[in-house]
Amino acid sequence: MAKAFFRLQKFLRRTQFLLFFLTAAYLMAGSLLLLQRTRLVIQQGSRGTSANQALPVPDGMVGVGIIDPRTLQNPRPGPRLLVGMDALQEPALDQRHSPRWLVSRNSELRQLRRRWFHRFISDQEPMQTAGFKAMKHTAEHKGTYMGCFSDDSRERTLKGAVFYDLRKMTVSHCQEACAERAYTYAGLAYGAECYCGNKLPATASKPEECNSECKGEKGSACGGVNRLSVYRVEELRAGARRRRNVIYRGCFRAPENLTDTFPASLIQPNLTVEMCSEFCSKKEFPLAVIQGRECYCGYPTGRFSLHDGADGLFCSGMHNASSATEGKYCLVYQTPVQDTRCTDRKFLTTKSKVFVALSSFPGAGNTWARHLIEHATGYYTGSYYFDGALYNKGFKGEKDHWRSRRTICVKTHESGKTEIEMFDSAILLIRNPYKSLMAEFNRKYAGHLGYATDRNWKSKEWPDFVNSYASWWASHVLDWLKYGKRLLVIHYEDLKQSLIPKLREMVEFLNMTVTEDRLLCVENNRDGNFKRSGAKQKDFEPFTQEMKDLINRYILTVDEALRGKNFTGLPREYVPR
């Protein structure tokens, strides 16, 4: 009995020791992991972005410099700071005193890197054919299921509108989007892609080949690999508004030969704008041109560019087609249909030899510039970060690794010697800092297409934001001027006002050639899906006089630096308020 008790006691001691050892090992492993992650966050917050890069200078140089915004927040005695071409260095941010907006921004930028996306999201494999029987096409979906069709990416039939949703794509979502754009058919592919059009694809496929499950709806078929699940779209429910209505473009001098200029036409007594627009929409043309009782459909071309509008008096009764002046002038309307001559995009077939950056301060129109470049060149742009919302809007380069060299250029908001010298050349996009700061603050609180609320603007976050981000606006430009190897400076305001000349300049810098018709197509689709929605505040002035004084000093410094590098100075509208 004693011997058995001794054995039991020995076993329990060994078990206690084993449990203690495992617990200690578990705690040590957890501690190491926590330390590693903490170190990574600190490194991400302290390198790359040079929002507050500055160097102490003598008091006598204050007249040509910029006061560090931190001195406005902490009025303690200390050296004045200069942000200048020859004074930029890259010290780590003082985590105790730097504005938390900037630290959070640094962390946010780093965490959007491509490698995080590849760890976070993995593409789902198409469902097995065996599970296809469980899919449904009619239960809760609107419209009529037309079948499974082949989809050729080089020559798509349904190409009127395209969008993606990696996580929430459903059949109803795609159908409603196409209905809002006045299309007849909605097609889904790869479980996450939606295509709209007015013509059915020519080649039908076996039903079981549409075997990709919708990302946002289990059990529903959303096409497959090079396969489209096509639905005929029903009319929108009563009271629903179409996203893109018919837009009056103006009165224009008619081309000499209307039938040669426009591919489709209709002669109709008592012709109305609605009749002509509906006819051209079904033909998938973006322009509806009315002259008397004649309706013409087509695109903007070199022969009819829509650049030189005529006085509306020449088109008497512009909203009554039958009374429009016949012969020399015509009424032009934009239909809900997208101009598809420039919507085809792809990755570069061979790796680019020149690594080009599309660099800007946040809120300076980088996404819009990417939209223009992609549609002008036909190639995707990449990104130093990953933004799922932009990927869903068709920027497929978001998912590609930023150093793959399969994209025409790479979006970046980074500055600093190391980050800049990675690129062989760069398009530097600059926008009025007042507009940029407001745009980035809107994005921070309401996404790419929304507006921040009055409560956001009146919070204490707004002054902190201006104090930290304003210096970043200046140092971003100064860093690229100092370390950039080959630069093309584009001002957002110039691009907006003279789109085709500036876009042609950007395309030539990228060593690409494009046709005039393609550039006119881009101009016709210039806004894309990137106009902010919601009510814009009128006569709203969020900047205090102290903020203006700070920003104006940055404007003068950047203007002087641009001229010192033989670039055109900042536009006149940047001049201090």
TrEMBL record:
The keyword Oxidoreductase appears for this protein: no
Residue ranges occupied by any WSC domain in the UniProt entry: 142-234, 245-342
UniProt xrefs under Gene3D superfamilies: P-loop containing nucleotide triphosphate hydrolases
Keyword set, alphabetical order: Repeat
PROSITE patterns (UniProt xref): WSC (PS51212)
UniProt family annotation: Belongs to the WSCD family.
The protein's name: WSCD1 protein
Organism, as annotated: Fregetta grallaria
